[in-house]
User: Which sequence fits this backbone?
């Protein structure tokens, strides 16, 4: 207890949700109580090479890589600059401060539940409270239209992506299995897999019984010390912010590197508009910080606000020359929003499980991502073991199972025996699933986005397949009283897809806008298809690739103009 | 502005280099101290087998010490959920006690009770190894990396078996002809060298597995997987090779391995510090972190190797 008190006393008196922390030439040292690291700062009149909107998986990674390549970088985030060791409480309710809960309007046939399970508002983005599952795409997915007959092809080659995946896995010291059962050979994960908890062993037993492969989930939390990060303590608070720094989030990996390389990070800085000039180039960003609007000049702007805020910002930045919003000559900005299925089956085991011990998804099977036979749908899915904390579990029982009052109380008594399997599945891109602007205004006076979502028949068939299969697996592992949770979805992708053609995509393979050569989009929005795995490793790999491409383009003098444009001039 | 590190320092910072240098100096100093004592005893009792036996008692005791504290910590962590988990504590305590008795016993004859306890330790250690193999194999997917990383360690009960074996050998050496010491009908020195060699190999296997599990995140973690196998090879040569007057290189290498075994405790203490909360949170981190009592099992085996080496060097026929 003494430790707790000591830490309490040293808690900084500042409130990171009200006052920016990254000011006066310094930023919080996320590894040390009350300490700071020096931070380079740029004047607003100084035309920086890159203004990056968002510091999550896409923006944070890119900020690091660009700063390390010698570019001047200012990265903006609407969220606070947390000190994980001090600011994160072991309290599910208090930690909802990490979620993006700004007002949004949802509709469609299957309106999304936005907030905790979709997006974060923090320096470090959603990775501050993500579940750390770090998976590679199946190679064929990069050409799913050509090879598998659905969705759209990516303008990226899987072999090239394989090298960027490796770079990210090394940067995050991913802890994963010695051999991965699916797909082409991959290099050894830098750290060894974690010990399985009882919930993960249930998944393993079910998979063994059904004769399919399973493995330890590659996770972005370390199984041995790394620098100032201690190994995971298996307390299972991961999706509420890791207070030990075992989790290798963007906040504690790429961003300290970015600061070291001379990038500036502006916390509590909400970008409301990207400015363009008469030559159809972006010139900087308008942002709200400390109760005022400011303008930062920049040679390039990168939008990395995730798949709702990114199209929103592009749409909000419309001008008379770009009446439909920036980068939107294809009309596709905001369209093809893809979430992923996150349905679950739950049951009761005779043995105590205590599924909340440790990271939530310690075991996985990607069987149905790599097996194409026996499916009545396009796409694939993975499923993983689960570890909901008590408030979330009570909410799931009340919301998805309809328990209340004494029934809910009685079911909560069996919390330690509950066990479940949860899917991450590949929904199809559909233009009708989209982000648009409404007339209502948020706290910054900016138009509130409307998020429209409906499943297509393929999505529904996949849901049914996944639920039925997971039910068999859970039964085979010895669970009883099994029930289906049919409503959950997770992750946000699409809305600014990359492609080969300006008419059918928003950016090219370098994440560069087809319409405006010094405007870039680098986050989950650029996915043409979403695959059956969690997206953050792919987002970070794309960011690393984009940085390399920008370096190469700059070296050729092609950063100001597209080479094609230059030929025209 | 406080700059307190809540977790740990840098991976290979100055502190670590400093630690490495201190550790290396401590190892050399320890080796030198061991060397001095060795010489003194050799002069005093150059003709007796009792010295060799006492040294083997010391080696058996060091191993028993390592097992006692290691199994106490690990089985406490496992909440002694199976009553059999008390067994290694009892057995290694007894082995430690009789080893202490043996080290102080200068008589040249076997002690019945000591011997009985050593033999029992050897048998129970072997049974325990079987238990641990069963535990590893019964998890989902049978024997795989997950189960060998996180299942019951095979090396721990094997170490108590080795302690018993070395002790039993020590008792038999006391009983045998000082000019032609025999154990189980075999040359005592060579047999002890062979046991120590195999033990070192097994212990290296255990350290390799666990340090691999830790991704060799600290370069010093390579030490216990590189020094001891050389010791094992040198001891194998001692057991099987021709008779030399002096194997000075083997002796120094074994001393180094002994020192490493003791200094390893300091490295593991540093490893404990790198867990969340460091030593302030010792009640949790001593259980989570690298096992403090594990490295001395290398010392125990290297000491047995030294005892064997003296026997072989002094008596052509041992
Ligand atoms: C609960 C949860 C669990 C998850 N688990 C996993 C997992 O296990 N594995 C996995 O791969 N993925 C997981 N994800 C998804 C993953 O976190 C996201 O896919 C990824 O972080 C998206 O990266 P991004 O860069 O596109 O956006 P984000 O990481 O969300 O970053 C966007 C940032 O931009 C900021 N921003 C937005 N608009 C503006 C603006 N106008 N001005 C200033 N700043 C702005 C936001 O504050 C935010 O910080 C999880 C997500 C959640 C919510
Ligand atoms: S279980 Fe591990 S990764 Fe998750 S919050 Fe705890 S220490 Fe962090």
Assistant:
């Amino acid at each position: 207890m003494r430790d707790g008190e000591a830490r309490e006393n040293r808690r900084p008196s500042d409130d990171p949700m009200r006052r920016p922390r990254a000011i006066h030439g310094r930023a919080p040292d996320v590894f040390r109580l009350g300490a700071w690291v020096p931070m380079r700062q740029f004047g607003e009149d100084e035309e920086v090479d890159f203004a990056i909107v968002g510091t999550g998986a896409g923006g944070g990674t890119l900020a690091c890589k660009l700063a390390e390549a010698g570019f001047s970088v200012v990265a903006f985030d609407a969220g606070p600059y947390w000190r994980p060791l001090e600011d994160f409480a072991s309290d599910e309710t208090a930690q909802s401060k990490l979620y993006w809960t700004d007002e949004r309007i949802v509709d469609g046939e299957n309106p999304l539940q936005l907030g905790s399970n979709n997006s974060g508002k923090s320096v470090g983005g959603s990775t501050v409270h993500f579940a750390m599952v770090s998976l590679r795409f199946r190679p064929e997915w990069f050409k799913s239209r050509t090879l598998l007959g659905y969705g759209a092809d990516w303008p990226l080659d899987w072999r090239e992506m394989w090298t960027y995946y490796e770079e990210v896995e090394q940067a995050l010291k991913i802890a994963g299995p010695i051999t991965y059962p699916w797909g082409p050979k991959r290099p050894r994960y830098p750290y060894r897999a974690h010990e399985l908890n009882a919930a993960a062993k249930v998944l393993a037993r079910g998979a063994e019984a059904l004769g399919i492969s399973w493995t330890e989930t590659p996770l972005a939390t370390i199984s041995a010390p790394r620098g100032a990060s201690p190994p995971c303590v298996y307390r299972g608070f991961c999706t509420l912010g890791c207070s030990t720094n075992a989790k290798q989030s963007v906040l504690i990996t790429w961003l300290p590197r970015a600061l070291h390389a001379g990038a500036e990070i502006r916390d509590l800085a909400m970008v409301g508009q990207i400015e363009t000039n008469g030559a159809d180039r972006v010139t900087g960003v308008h942002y709200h910080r400390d109760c005022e609007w400011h303008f930062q000049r920049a040679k390039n702007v990168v939008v990395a606000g995730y798949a709702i805020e990114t199209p929103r910002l592009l749409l909000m930045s419309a001008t008379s020359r770009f009446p439909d919003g920036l980068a939107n000559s294809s009309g596709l900005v905001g369209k093809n929003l893809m979430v992923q299925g996150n349905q679950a089956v739950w049951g009761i085991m005779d043995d105590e499980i205590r599924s909340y011990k440790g990271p939530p998804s310690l075991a996985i099977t990607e069987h149905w991502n790599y097996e194409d036979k026996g499916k009545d749908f396009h796409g694939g899915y993975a499923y993983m073991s689960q570890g909901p904390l008590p408030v979330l579990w009570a909410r799931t029982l009340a919301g998805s199972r309809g328990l209340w009052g004494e029934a809910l109380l009685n079911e909560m008594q069996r919390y330690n025996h509950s066990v479940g399997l949860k899917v991450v599945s590949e929904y199809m891109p559909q233009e009708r699933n989209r982000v648009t602007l409404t007339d209502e205004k948020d706290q910054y006076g900016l138009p509130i986005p409307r998020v429209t979502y409906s499943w297509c028949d393929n999505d529904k068939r996949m849901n049914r397949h996944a639920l039925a299969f997971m039910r068999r697996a859970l039964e085979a592992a010895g669970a009883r009283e099994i029930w289906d949770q049919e409503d959950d979805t997770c992750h946000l992708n699409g809305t600014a897809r990359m492609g080969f053609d300006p008419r059918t995509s928003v950016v090219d393979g370098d994440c560069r806008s087809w319409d405006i050569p010094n405007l870039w989009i680098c986050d989950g929005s650029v996915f043409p298809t979403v695959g059956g795995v969690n997206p953050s490793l792919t987002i970070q790999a794309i960011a690393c690739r984009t940085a390399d491409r920008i370096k190469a383009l700059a070296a050729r003098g092609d950063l100001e103009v597209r080479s094609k444009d230059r030929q025209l001039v | 502005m406080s700059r307190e590190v809540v977790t740990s320092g840098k991976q290979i910072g100055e502190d670590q280099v400093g630690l490495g240098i201190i550790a290396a100096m401590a190892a050399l100093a320890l080796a030198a101290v061991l060397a001095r004592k060795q010489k003194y005893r050799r002069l005093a009792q150059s003709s007796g087998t009792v010295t060799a036996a006492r040294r083997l008692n010391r080696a058996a005791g060091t191993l028993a010490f390592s097992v006692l504290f290691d199994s106490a910590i690990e089985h406490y962590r496992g909440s002694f959920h199976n009553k059999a988990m008390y067994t290694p504590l009892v057995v290694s305590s007894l082995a430690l006690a009789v080893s202490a008795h043996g080290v102080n016993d200068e008589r040249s004859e076997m002690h019945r009770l000591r011997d009985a306890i050593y033999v029992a330790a050897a048998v129970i250690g072997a049974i325990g190894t079987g238990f641990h193999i069963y535990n590893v194999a019964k998890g989902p997917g049978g024997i795989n990396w997950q189960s060998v990383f996180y299942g019951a360690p095979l090396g721990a009960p094997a170490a108590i078996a080795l302690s018993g074996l070395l002790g039993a050998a020590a008792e038999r050496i006391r009983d045998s002809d000082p000019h032609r010491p025999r154990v189980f009908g075999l040359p005592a020195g060579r047999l002890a060298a062979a046991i120590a060699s195999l033990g070192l190999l097994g212990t290296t296997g255990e350290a390799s597995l666990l340090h691999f599990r830790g991704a060799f995140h600290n370069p010093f973690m390579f030490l216990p997987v590189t020094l001891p196998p050389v010791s094992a090879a040198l001891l194998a040569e001692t057991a099987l090779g021709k008779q030399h007057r002096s194997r000075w290189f083997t002796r120094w290498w074994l001393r180094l391995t002994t020192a490493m075994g003791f200094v390893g405790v300091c490295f593991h203490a540093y490893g404990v510090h790198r867990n969340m909360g460091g030593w302030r949170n010792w009640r949790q981190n001593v259980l989570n972190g690298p096992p403090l009592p594990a490295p001395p099992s290398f010392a125990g085996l290297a000491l047995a190797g030294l005892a064997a080496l003296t026997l072989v060097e002094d008596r052509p026929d041992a």
